[in-house]
TrEMBL record:
Pathway as given in its UniProt record: Amino-acid biosynthesis; L-lysine biosynthesis via DAP pathway; (S)-tetrahydrodipicolinate from L-aspartate: step 4/4
GO molecular function list: 4-hydroxy-tetrahydrodipicolinate reductase; NAD binding; NADP binding; oxidoreductase activity, acting on CH or CH2 groups, NAD or NADP as acceptor
Gene Ontology cellular component annotations, sorted alphabetically: cytosol
Gene from which this protein is expressed: dapB
Protein family according to the UniProt entry: Belongs to the DapB family.
EC assignment: 1.17.1.8
UniProt keyword Transport, yes or no: no
Name of this protein: 4-hydroxy-tetrahydrodipicolinate reductase
Length: 266
C-alpha cells in the first residue's frame, strides 16, 4: 500500500512539533508539506529544531493544497484557524485530522454536513491520549449512577480555549446518559460571578490555568456519603501521539465525521 501523504498545520507549536516528528518517523507516512505563517516559501529543514526534516512550507493553505498532493491534514493550530483549515481541506478533497480544540456545536454541525456532502472522513479529536479517552468513557459509565457531577480541567496557562475540548466532550458524553439536573442548593447565589463554574445542564465545569501544568482533568461524582473521582494526567505531549497516528491511519477508511476517538478505538 502507498504511504499516507500528510500535511501538518502549526508545526512550530507544542503539539505540531511532536506531530511533525511522528509523521517523519513513521515509515508508512510521508510529510509532504507544513502550514506555517512565519516561513512561507521556505523548507522545514531550515527552521530551528527541524534539521533533516525536508518539507516545503506554505502560509496559504489553498496554495498548499493546489500545489501539493496530500491525503490527510493534521491541524494543531487555534480554533478560528483550525475551522478554516478543516473546511478548506474538505473542499479540496483532503481528510482532516483535527486536534485543535474550541470548536462550537455549530462548527461541528457545519463540518458534519460538509463531510457528508463530500463523502470524506473527518476526525475531530478533543483528546488524542488513550488514558483521556478511557477517563471520559469511565465518567460516562459513572454518570448513569451519579447525577451530581463537577468536572475540573487543569491546563498550562498558554491555552486559548476554556473549557477545554476534553471537558466539553466529557460533558457531552455524560449528558447522553444523565437527566438534566440543577446541582447545588436551589437558592445558591454567586457573590463573585463565575464562582460555580460553567453550567452544562446543571453540571459544572471549572477551568484551572497554571504555569507548570500540561493537561489534566478530574471528574467528581458525589452521592450520599461517597465521592468517586475519575482522573487523567498528560505529563507531556508525547502522550497524544499514538492517537494522532491511529487517526491518520483510520481516516483513510472513513467517509463520515467522527467526533472523539472513543468512536474509533476498539
Ligand atoms: N486533541 C488533543 O489531544 C490536543 C489538542 N490540543 C490543541 O491543539 C491546539 C494547539 O495546541 P498547542 O500546540 O499547545 O498550541 P501552540 O500555541 O503551541 O501552537 C499553535 C500553533 O498554531 C500556529 N498558528 C496560530 N495562528 C495561526 C495562523 N493564523 N495560521 C497558521 N498557524 C497559526 C502557531 O504559530 P505562530 O507561532 O505563528 O503563532 C503555533 O505554531 C490547541 O487548540 C490545543 O487545545 C493540544 C494538546 C492535545
Ligand atoms: O491545549 C491543550 O494543551 C490541550 N487541549 C486539548 C483540550 O482542550 O482538551 C487536549 C488536552 O487537554 C491538551
Amino acid at each position: 500500500m502507498a504511504n499516507i501523504k500528510v500535511i501538518v498545520a502549526g508545526p512550530r507549536g507544542r503539539m505540531g512539533f511532536e506531530a511533525v516528528k511522528l509523521v517523519h518517523n513513521t515509515e508508512h507516512f510521508d510529510l509532504v508539506a507544513v502550514i506555517d505563517r512565519k516561513h512561507d516559501g521556505g523548507n522545514l529543514s531550515d527552521v530551528e529544531g527541524f534539521q533533516g526534516i525536508d518539507a516545503p512550507i506554505f502560509s496559504d493553505i489553498k496554495e498548499c493544497f493546489s500545489k501539493v498532493e496530500a491525503d490527510v491534514l493534521v491541524d494543531l493550530t487555534t480554533p478560528e484557524v483550525g475551522m478554516y483549515h478543516t473546511e478548506t481541506a474538505l473542499q479540496y478533497g483532503i481528510r482532516p485530522v483535527v486536534g485543535t480544540t474550541g470548536f462550537t456545536k455549530e462548527d461541528l454541525a457545519k463540518l458534519d454536513a460538509l463531510t457528508k456532502e463530500k463523502g470524506l472522513g473527518c476526525i475531530i479529536a478533543p483528546n488524542f491520549a488513550i488514558g483521556a479517552i478511557l477517563m471520559m468513557k469511565f465518567s460516562q459509565m459513572a454518570a448513569k449512577y451519579f447525577k451530581d457531577v463537577e468536572i475540573i480541567e487543569m491546563h498550562h496557562d498558554q491555552k486559548l480555549d476554556a473549557p477545554s475540548g476534553t471537558a466539553a466532550k466529557t460533558a457531552d458524553l455524560i449528558s447522553s446518559v444523565r437527566e438534566a439536573k440543577v446541582q447545588g442548593h436551589p437558592s445558591e447565589k454567586e457573590t463573585i460571578p463565575g464562582a460555580r463554574g460553567a453550567d452544562v445542564e446543571g453540571m459544572r465545569i471549572h477551568s484551572v490555568r497554571l504555569p507548570g501544568l500540561v493537561a489534566h482533568q478530574q471528574v467528581l461524582f458525589g452521592s450520599a456519603g461517597e465521592l468517586l473521582t475519575v482522573r487523567h494526567d498528560s505529563f507531556n505531549r508525547g502522550s497524544f501521539m499514538s492517537g494522532v497516528k491511529l487517526s491518520v491511519e483510520t481516516i483513510m477508511n472513513l467517509d463520515v465525521l467522527v467526533y472523539g476517538l472513543e468512536n474509533i478505538i476498539e
